[in-house]
Amino acid sequence: MPEVAEVAHVCAQLRRNIIGYRITGANILNDSLLFPSLKGNNEPEGEIRRINSLLDGAVVEKVGRHGKYFWIRFNNQVAMLMHFGMTGMIKLKNIDSHMVFMENGGDKKILETKVKVKEESTSGSSSKTTSKYFAKKESIKEVDNKKQEQEQEQEQWPPNFSKMELKLKKEKELDLSFVDPRRLGRIRFFTDITKDEDLFNLDPLKRQGPDYSKSGLHVTKIFEYGDPDPKRYIELLSLPEFAKLVISKKKTIKSLLLEQDYFAGVGNWVSDEILYQSRIHPGEVLSEKLDSSSPVIEALYNALISVCYTAVSVEGDVKKFPEEWLMLYRWGKRRTKQAKAKVGGHPVDFVTIGGRTACFVPKVQKKL
């Protein structure tokens, strides 16, 4: 499932490419799962015509994000609020993206790329790279560019599993598609939205907790890379408030971190990373063993902010994550013929908690 960093990348792509564009055409599929306003509607075709009328001629004014939700706001006070579910994604025709789906073997491809670039960057030279990553980002970018050029030549449009297509125009034309193979994403349309904050008075955003990736900095007019929307629509808990929350919950810390009404945007891999960086076992019920003044809770709080902020600052590009992160090594559970991955020289393992798979490193994430 796309989490806070992947959603931030999509928003960054949209902000770089569609601000000021006018919608000249829309193709909305009659899918009552993806479009909640179609569910139980006796006249779905009429509702689709209504949606088309909202979009026709609308100009993109703003792109925003909070947790796993993101939105496009138009000049006619219409907002399109989206959630990717498990497999949703936005595609822009002939616009490159570094997004890799790790569940489908993407982790192996990234590791192979890093190793290849590292070998090429060190061959014929005795000097070692001083980067904290496996290889220089410039070298990795060269490999990515070649791959993206090949993919563009083979690009199919509309893409497979496309549920909504928009045609946009400014100086040039641009095509956008929302794809979702498993149909667990959601696209909602709201009217009379004059500012982003209006969305937080409505379901589902009014039920969301803080987004700990947000720096709270002013949203700049000129944007190139990083967090496309650092504004905090909901204030973060302070350390004492966070500690009070954690101690009040009689559930595993892994399960607590996944609750979107407390930690918007945190999903399976982000929660695993937070717990690995804070050296906490995912199955711990912290309220049974700690009080609110424990340094363990402070470490958890710091890791929550650090992991979310860092992942968003590089737009979820795993090739730019710190080398000591767990994320790239947590995807091999089903590869029975493959040796266990190691992080920092220690093997990773998996445990099911609350019906969700948690990846951890037993050597450093021991029970309290």
Automatic annotation (TrEMBL):
Record keywords: Nucleotide-binding included? no
BP GO terms, sorted: base-excision repair
Q: What Gene3D superfamilies does the entry give?
A: 1.10.8.50, MutM-like, N-terminal
What are the GO cellular component annotations? nucleus
Q: Where is this region: Disordered?
A: 141-161
Name of the protein this chain belongs to: Formamidopyrimidine-DNA glycosylase catalytic domain-containing protein
Record field: catalytic activity: Hydrolysis of DNA containing ring-opened 7-methylguanine residues, releasing 2,6-diamino-4-hydroxy-5-(N-methyl)formamidopyrimidine
Q: Where is the Formamidopyrimidine-DNA glycosylase catalytic domain?
A: 2-185
Segments of skewed composition (Basic and acidic residues): 141-150
Lineage of the source organism? Eukaryota, Fungi, Dikarya, Ascomycota, Saccharomycotina
User: Does this entry carry the keyword Transport?
Assistant: no
Recorded source organism is Candida tenuis (strain ATCC 10573 / BCRC 21748 / CBS 615 / JCM 9827 / NBRC 10315 / NRRL Y-1498 / VKM Y-70) (Yeast)
User: From the Swiss-Prot or TrEMBL record, what is one GO molecular function term?
Assistant: lyase activity
Q: Which domain of life does the UniProt lineage start with?
A: Eukaryota
The family annotation for this protein states:
Belongs to the FPG family.
InterPro entries membership: FPG_cat, FPG_N, H2TH_FPG, Ribosomal_uS13-like_H2TH
UniProt entry keywords in alphabetical sequence: DNA damage, DNA repair, DNA-binding, Glycosidase, Hydrolase, Lyase, Multifunctional enzyme
